[in-house]
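Hello Y.,

Per our agreement to keep a running log of every chain we model this quarter, I'm adding this entry. I've kept the format consistent with earlier entries: sequence first, then predicted structure.
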Amino acid sequence: MAIAKILLTHQDGASLLTFAGDYDVFCAPAVRDRVHGELDRGAPCVIDLRGATFIDSTIMSVLLGANRRSNQAGIPFAIVLGEGSGAPVRRVFEVTHLLPVFRVFDDPDLAVDAVTQLIQPA
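Predicted structure for the entry above:
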């Protein structure tokens, strides 16, 4: 199992959390704390899962909770997945039929642009 790492960067006013490795029940509390911490700052949040090699149902639950929390707070939230159905994490989203629940992008720059535009005054 690959060691789970989350790299946090800030880009154009958004928090970009880049995941690498395997994520399961054992790291779910740390993932939840990291994602919720960024949402609590009030900044738009992008979760880049292209480097994740595995996620289990507890991580899906964390992401669903973060999405719900962001919607309730009016904070834009998006997920970046690998292109095509071959990416293992994207496949989890497909088989669970959860792709439509999230704002999903193939590129982190496009995701950051999208979430920051959602907070720009009209």
